[in-house]
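User: Let's play a game. I give you a shape written as tokens, and you guess the letters that built it. Ready? Here's round one.
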């Protein structure tokens, strides 16, 4: 999917704050909240706030409706938007948390695929994403092809192939990692599957769906220590995209140099097929911060990570970050979501990971018949680079209008056609690469077809 670029015509700034009394006014002791962002719709760009809630942004056209986002299930934002006509300050948004919601989530991550006869590391991250302090009990069920070595923090008990940690208590927005080391059986067969299953129990939990997570892996003989993974991967059903399927990305890295890495930085630009405000940091091997700028460029920084090199400490030389983001429902019309990460160790050149892909089938046409006079429309070639031919089977008497709408819902081309036209030639060479929908509109008619511009 393509992205536009534009220049600044007006600047604005403000603060996201914890609106404790939900009055829409920043009162004393109502501190800033990080990881919130604003969208400037006419530019389709995003600006994220800093660690104390402050942000700076620009508009490329005025007036524009500034929309706030904070990806938390149990909050409201006041006001819901601002309409700005010029440069402005104190464009503040109050985030109010719905009180006393219990919700603990569990994320299970492996540092790399298992290799027969070698150590295998996994981490369970428990997050308190509710609005009150909560406690629960955690367990990890592992495949018997693994032999348990150790865990940090130490397990309370191990019964058979199940590890237990009891009475885990977390404050609001707090997380805890549980690292586990196994050694794979030397008789494990390359290509065979293995599974780990993490589960957290809490009788008062509002959402039990996110209380468990599973790793379904395959034994390998070798692996790239710096890699990218996405779930789901490959071709998915269009109905999942229409339901805004959540994509989970994992970036793994290892210091294969000869000295510790002081800082590790990951830059990952999200596809326009993804809904940037739904970004959620799920799990990470070491403390990190992240920032999302303008067109979906995600920068994740591990400051002072002091990651040892593999020669001096192989077990400690690994790291990872896992995040999720929902796809746009427009992906249901067909498209490809590609993602590649760039990993920077201190001041070295970036290590570029493999490219992962999730895609849906391209729908040649979408037929929304309202009257028998409009039967079928189609477009070819699809995808295209410069020109398309629109075939219209229309038997009505009124002239119709054509609108081409881009991924963000913006009309990028308009044209009127006569009722006698059956073949319409359209020049789309000036459009950015991405997915578009052609609407054929009349007083009593509405039909559309999707195409891809390369």
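Assistant: Ready! My guess for every position:
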């Amino acid at each position: 999917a393509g992205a536009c670029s534009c220049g600044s015509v007006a600047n604005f700034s403000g603060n996201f704050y914890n609106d404790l009394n939900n009055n829409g006014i920043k009162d004393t002791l109502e501190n800033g909240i990080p990881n919130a962002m604003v969208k400037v719709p006419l530019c389709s760009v995003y600006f994220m706030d800093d660690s104390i809630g402050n942000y700076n942004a620009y508009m490329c056209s005025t007036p524009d409706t500034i929309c706030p986002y904070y990806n938390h299930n149990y909050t409201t934002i006041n006001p819901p938007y601002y309409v700005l006509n010029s440069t402005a300050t104190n464009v503040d948004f109050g985030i109010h948390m719905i009180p006393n919601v219990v919700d603990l989530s569990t994320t299970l991550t492996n540092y790399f695929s298992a290799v027969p006869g070698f150590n295998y590391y996994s981490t369970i991250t428990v997050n308190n994403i509710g609005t009150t302090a909560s406690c629960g009990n955690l367990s990890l069920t592992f495949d018997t092809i693994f032999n348990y070595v150790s865990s940090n923090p130490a397990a309370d008990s191990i019964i058979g192939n199940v590890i237990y940690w009891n009475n885990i208590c977390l404050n609001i927005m707090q997380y805890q990692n549980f690292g586990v080391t196994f050694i794979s059986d030397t008789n494990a067969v390359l290509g065979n599957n293995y599974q780990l299953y993490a589960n957290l129990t809490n009788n008062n939990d509002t959402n039990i769906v996110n209380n468990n997570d599973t790793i379904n892996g395959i034994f390998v003989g070798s692996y790239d220590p710096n890699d990218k993974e996405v779930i789901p991967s490959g071709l998915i059903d269009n109905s999942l995209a229409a339901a805004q399927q959540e994509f989970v990305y994992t970036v793994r890295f290892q210091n294969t140099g000869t000295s510790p890495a002081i800082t590790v930085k990951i830059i990952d630009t999200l596809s326009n097929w993804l809904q940037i405000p739904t970004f959620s940091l799920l799990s990470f091997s070491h403390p990190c911060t992240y920032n999302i700028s303008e067109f979906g460029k995600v920068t994740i920084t591990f400051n002072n990570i002091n990651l040892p090199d593999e020669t001096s400490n192989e077990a400690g030389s690994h790291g990872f970050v896992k995040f999720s983001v929902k796809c746009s429902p427009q992906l249901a019309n067909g498209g490809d979501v590609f993602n590649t990460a760039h990993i920077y160790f201190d001041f070295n050149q970036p290590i570029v990971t493999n490219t992962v892909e999730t895609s849906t089938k391209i729908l040649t046409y979408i037929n929304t018949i309202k009257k028998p006079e409009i039967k079928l429309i189609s477009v070819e070639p699809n995808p295209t680079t410069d020109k398309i031919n629109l075939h219209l089977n229309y038997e009505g008497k009124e002239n119709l209008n054509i609108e081409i709408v881009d991924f963000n819902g913006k009309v990028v081309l308009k044209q009127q056609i006569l009722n006698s036209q059956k073949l319409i030639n359209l020049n789309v060479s000036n459009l950015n690469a991405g997915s578009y929908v052609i609407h054929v509109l009349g007083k009593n008619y509405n039909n559309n077809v999707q195409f891809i511009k390369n």
